[in-house]
Design brief:
The chain is of the alpha/beta class and 406 residues long. It contains twelve helices and 15 strands.
């Protein structure tokens, strides 16, 4: 009997995830015994960050009380009430629905799946988190990236957004603070995005998972707080602010005009019911986190500010590299001023030095530019060692490959 290979679905053809794809090469390099310095994955628990104890206790106690079965599809009552209080503190009004998901990733997937048909498109920030383009590929959506402007410290390019909107555009995504650049949107930028959404009948997806990780007095403005009528889904979660990415707890807050949103709300809830529920015990950490002691954020932001400053200063001192100062999150997106592909630079850096970063092409970037993403979560002595290796490598790399440094 003839044996034929199983043919995968075409919807997976263009799905990539550079943040973890680079680990395949890193694992091969690690086998040689080389010291590895991982600056590629935004997991605070790999370093000197930990969740508040009262969150862990709340989860543990719920398990002891046998809250280990299915939860309600939208989430447990105490969690939903706590998220609503948090939304009110952020200034979000006219809330139509709140739902808890298995990480923000599931919330994004459900909300895009509920809205966008094959052949339609969503405006996606570039550079931006690669999950959005992966989901768009799965849904057979047309790519429609808009660019963040490096010359304005990575603010969304409003004119570029205007040019990209067409009759098939259903929504616009903002990641604020942004991954991978660490930028924080200005109020003026947010207001302009709202006006475009109104004129073109777009849903705004506001990914605000890093909204409490800000530096030097920076303040975060939730876009939903600026208008109570425009349809907005605000995404949040425990992963980054509360140092529990492994809990896989995120949520969505649907706000705006009730009459406009009624059908979309029901479509979201159909998918929520179909997948049963998010993790049950971990939902008990939500009120403990959002309404409890926030002092861990003071210490976290203090450490991250110092590591951000070290990152920016050191990278800007390397010939051929420049780095815009991040205002939030724990990422930097330095530019390589060269005419060589960034994925080649990143691969050679990894093989020679053991330093693991992610090529900018994995997040999207303006054509003709080259970048890489750095995660500055590690302690300063690790960052110093890694940046020293990058500096020495860059000098040799530019000479070896006869790269014309811009």
């Amino acid at each position: 009997m003839a044996i034929h290979k199983i043919t995968p679905a075409q919807r997976t053809d263009n799905i990539t995830y550079a943040i973890r794809d680079i680990v395949v090469l890193a694992n091969e390099v690690a086998k040689t015994g080389k010291e590895m310095l991982y600056l590629n994955i935004g997991d605070p628990n790999l370093f000197d960050f930990a969740p508040p104890r009262h969150m862990v206790d709340a989860t543990y106690n719920s398990m002891l009380k046998n809250y280990n079965g299915y939860a309600p599809s939208s989430g447990i009552k105490s969690a939903l009430e706590s998220i609503e209080r948090e939304a009110e503190r952020k200034g979000i009004k006219n809330i139509q629905d709140i739902f808890v998901t298995n990480g923000v990733s599931e919330a994004i997937d459900i909300c895009l799946t509920s809205l966008v048909n094959e052949g339609e498109n969503v405006l996606t920030p570039t550079p931006g988190y690669p999950l959005y383009t992966a989901i768009a590929s799965k849904l057979r959506n047309h790519e429609n990236p808009y660019y963040l402007d490096e010359s304005t410290e990575w603010q969304p390019g409003i004119e570029d957004i205007k040019e990209k909107i067409n009759e098939k555009t259903k929504a616009i995504i903002i990641i604020n603070p942004n991954n991978p650049t660490g930028s924080n949107c200005s109020i003026e930028t947010l207001k302009q995005i709202i006006e475009l959404a109104k004129v073109h009948n777009l849903v705004i997806f506001a990914d605000e998972i890093y909204d409490k990780l800000l530096f030097e007095g920076e303040k975060h403005t939730s876009i939903a707080s600026l208008d109570s009528e425009v349809p907005i889904v605000t995404f949040g979660g425990l992963s980054k602010n509360y140092m529990v990415p492994g809990f896989r707890i995120g949520w969505g807050i649907l706000s705006g005009n009730k009459n406009i949103l009624s059908d979309y709300k029901e479509a979201i809830n159909k998918l929520l019911r179909a997948r049963l529920s998010a993790n049950h015990p971990e939902q008990f950490a939500i009120p403990s986190a959002l309404d409890g002691d926030q002092s861990h954020l003071i210490e976290a932001n203090k450490k991250l500010t110092s590591r951000r400053d070290l990152t920016v200063q050191t990278l800007n001192n390397i010939p051929g590299i420049s780095c815009i100062k991040p205002e939030g999150a724990f990422y930097a997106f330095p530019q390589l001023h060269m005419n060589q592909p960034d994925n080649h630079f990143v691969a050679e850096l990894l093989k020679e030095t053991g330093v693991v970063v992610v090529p900018g092409s994995g997040f999207g970037q303006v054509k003709g530019t080259q970048h890489f993403r750095v995660v500055f979560l590690p302690p300063e002595y690790i960052l110093e060692k890694a940046y020293s290796k990058i500096a020495k490598f860059a000098e040799k790399y530019f000479e070896k490959y006869e790269v014309a440094v811009k």
